[in-house]
Write a structure and sequence with these properties.
Organism: Pseudopithomyces chartarum
Domain N-acetyltransferase: 31-172
Helix content: 25-40%
Distance between the termini: 35 Å
InterPro entries: Acyl_CoA_acyltransferase, GNAT_dom, N-acetyltransferase
Protein name: N-acetyltransferase domain-containing protein
Pfam families: Acetyltransf_3 (PF13302)
Oligomer: single chain
Order of helices and strands: EEHEEHEHEEHEHEE
Structural class: alpha+beta
Strand content: 15-25%
Strand order of the largest sheet: 1-2-5-6-7-8-10-9
Number of helices: 5
Length: 212
Amino acid sequence: MLDHNFYITTPRLAITYPDPKSEAHIAFSLELYKDYTTTDANGNVKHTIPDRAAAIAMMETRAAQIETTGYGRYYVSVLPPTSSPEEDEAERVQKSTLVGMVSLNLRNADAPPLPDIGFNLLPSTRGKGYATEAVEGLTKWYEKEKGVTELLGYCDDDNLASIKVLRRAGFELLGDRVIASLMNAGNVSQEHQGKLLVWTRGLKKDPKEYGL
């Protein structure tokens, strides 16, 4: 069972587990993923998180993923201003405002055997550096607590916002690659059902040894 009192803080943000029992997290999940769709084998387009039950199920699945693999999705919130030097940090986290998610995922056997970073913010909160700060905060925590230093990132070649975030967070462009497990589950747009840009950080071996 995940401890939902867990949090990571950065100068402006709090990073926490998604909580399927939290009404705020349920409502936020519906808002964050409202435009996400998948296409089934028959070509039917469906919303990934269409309702409250789906939002709860998604967070329960993500919690189980973190418990079993040590990797998964986290929610990102903006901390309120500090009212005094003695203010309790946990109270500030509880008062924070949800703005997005950041993730570190270890994919299945069809993907390279390294965790990859992901992030998504509400449109109204983009352009403020939150994504870069969240990526740096989560990856620093994984390095300190779990010794994870070799990382990947994927994005479409025209996703300029993600490209900027990855570069600012210290990732280097490797090139474009076909990552089969990311090509068929709503992870990339229909017009990009071919290759993804692959980014690396901290690799200790030749990328070819990771299947890249």
